[in-house]
Amino acid sequence: MSEGKLQDRVAVVTGAGQGIGEGVARLYAAEGAQVAVVDINQEAAQAVADSIVADGGQAVAVVCDVGNRASVDEAAATVVEQLGVIDILVSNAGVTRPAMLWKMTDDEWNMVLDTHLGGSFYWLQAVAGGMREQKYGRIIFTTSAAGIIGTIGQINYSVAKAGLLGMTRSAARELADSKITVNAIAPAASTPMTEVIRTDERFKDTYLQSIPLKRWAEPDEVAASYLFLATEEAGYLTGQCLSVDGGRVMVR
Ligand SMILES: NC(=O)c1ccc[n+]([C@@H]2O[C@H](COP(=O)([O-])OP(=O)(O)OC[C@H]3O[C@@H](n4cnc5c(N)ncnc54)[C@H](O)[C@@H]3O)[C@@H](O)[C@H]2O)c1
After folding, report:
1. Which member of 1, 166, 169, 214 has the greatest number of CB atoms within 10 A?
2. What biological process terms from GO does the record include (predicted)?
3. In a domain, 22, yes or no
4. CB neighbours of residue 157 within 10 Å
5. Residue range(s) defining the domain that contains residue 105
6. pLDDT digits (tens, 9 = 90+) for 115-132
């Protein structure tokens, strides 16, 4: 059997209990990586890790609330203890708490910023030390079209995702001399998170019309771009955001 594109690399994928994160975890494992399936939902993380192992891959489930620094530090230590190092971080865990700005509560604002921005920053700090020592690393943040072109009814999410673009560019500059690349992906995929805009009569046609390719991708198709950014071949690509969204966001 030929070597996978991520043979013997150790990857952490947050929010890997379902959706895009699950697709990325499965593809990375199929390409030879040892994958830490990180999620706040213990049952979901364990089910994904078990099924990767049943398919002949290598995976462990790690429970973590990415919005809580102590939980992230503990999870990162567990991964290093079990798998030795961390070569690849995919920060993907996410939530939405939609509301028009004049109705949004502090809890809705804080929850979304803590999960996306806090979670990505805590994981960035947790992996950066080891990656700097080994002078190798691949970090991929998950942003969104909402952070690039704005959106209605999710100012918390849009602000968090826009912040991740700044985190990508600053971390890319700070970590470049350690041969660590830092990039972002703004995906669109058919997952539980997008169920309402894909199926609700009030939104589904308008949203689909805004996608030039006129279809939703499955998580596997989006995961292919996460794979490329995680490979050694992508070593000259850093500080960028790839929109993997059927062409919805083209110019920025
Ligand atoms: N699906 C899309 O079209 C789309 C579009 C733009 C951006 N995104 C982003 O992609 C990422 C994945 O989205 P998805 O559609 O797969 O979502 P999803 O809701 O299907 O899955 C999200 C996963 O994250 C986990 N999670 C939530 N909060 C967590 C926390 N505090 N700690 C650890 N895990 C937590 C959930 O348990 C779940 O398994 C998110 O960051 C989302 O904002 C998705």
Report:
1. 169
2. monocarboxylic acid metabolic process
3. yes
4. 23
5. 10-191+219-244
6. 999 999 999 999 999 999
